[in-house]
Specification:
7 strands, alpha+beta, Alpha-D-Glucose-1,6-Bisphosphate, Chain A, domain 4, globular, 7-stranded antiparallel beta sheet
Length: 153
């Protein structure tokens, strides 16, 4: 499933970049994030709880940054599994984050994720999963915007 979004931030590109490469900052914007642990400057482990319809899952996954072109581009890959009571689901993702400087204090933040989920969540079909991903993406974008523009990162 492909998930894409872009939004404008009122901040200098370097500030947005610094925010984006810190997993604690960016992780705090991910709905359902329970924990993030930085292993090194390009690897971290995260746990996210998600509910789609009546099914809840708790995914623990490893994230690796595979490409960096500061302060404009970041690519990462992630894979993990459902660690909740139901278990049996797997998750993989490839994500690109691109920053485009519009002016000295304005940046376009865009991301593109290819997400693969197998297990109980996959039974919902792409339409339901896409709607949930869009909802979570909107919350993520709003939280990033608030944290960066109010300086609460």
């Amino acid at each position: 499933m492909l998930v894409e979004e872009k939004f404008i931030l009122a901040a200098p590109i370097q500030e947005v970049w610094d925010f984006s490469i810190d997993p604690r900052n960016l992780g705090a914007c991910v709905p359902g994030l329970e924990e993030v642990e930085q292993v090194d400057d390009r690897t971290y482990v995260a746990t996210v709880a998600v509910k789609v319809g009546p099914i809840k899952a708790r995914f623990k996954f490893n994230v690796s940054i595979t490409e960096m072109d500061p302060p404009r581009h970041l690519k990462s890959v992630a894979q993990g599994a459902d660690t909740g009571l139901a278990k049996g689901g797997n998750f993989s993702m490839e994500a690109d984050v691109d920053l485009r400087e519009i002016s000295k204090d304005e940046v376009e933040f865009s991301y593109r994720m290819v997400v693969n989920v197998v297990g109980k969540f996959a039974t919902f079909g792409e339409r339901v999963m896409r709607a949930k991903a869009k909802e979570l993406g909107s919350i993520f974008a709003q939280t990033v915007k608030e944290k960066i523009e109010t300086g609460t990162a």
